[in-house]
Amino acid sequence: MGVRITVTVPMLLSDCTKGRSAFELEADTLQGALQLLVAEYPLLKVHLYNEHGEVRKHVLIYYNNDNIAWLDKLDIPLAAGDKLRVLQAVSGG
To answer: Residue 30: its pLDDT value, please?
Structure first.
């Protein structure tokens, strides 16, 4: 049985998550949570990952206070109260 974590996505992507910008997922590891996120909400995959399976440059995914790009591995065991946040970097002038 997995651990329940809170997931938030930008309102701009809530059309990919059945209109929700915050919800819970249950998984054992961070990697499992990321896989479940796109399995449950397949429309998110194209917004989060490029064709090589890498997180898109304009997307930031945070596990608690850490950008997942900074982590050495993603098979981190989850704990109660953990959070997964999807952010979109915005640029322009």
So the answer is: 97
Report how far apart, in Å, the C-alpha atoms of 42 and of each of 17, 34, 60, 79 are.
9, 11, 18, 25
Each domain of the chain, given as residue ranges in start order, spans 3-88
For residue 2, count other CB atoms closer than 10 A to its CB: 13
Q: Show the DSSP H helices in 1-93 as ranges.
A: 30-40, 42-48
Instruction: Please name the CATH architecture into which domain 3-88 falls.
Output: Roll (3.10)
Mean pLDDT of the chain: 94
Q: What is the pLDDT of residue 1?
A: 72
- Quickly count: other Cβ atoms within 10 Å of residue 27's Cβ: 20
- Alpha-carbon span 75 to 52, nearest angstrom: 20
Distance CA 1, CA 33 (A): 13
Start-to-end CA span in the chain (Å): 47
How confident is the model over 62-88, as pLDDT tens digits? 999 999 999 999 999 999 999 999 998
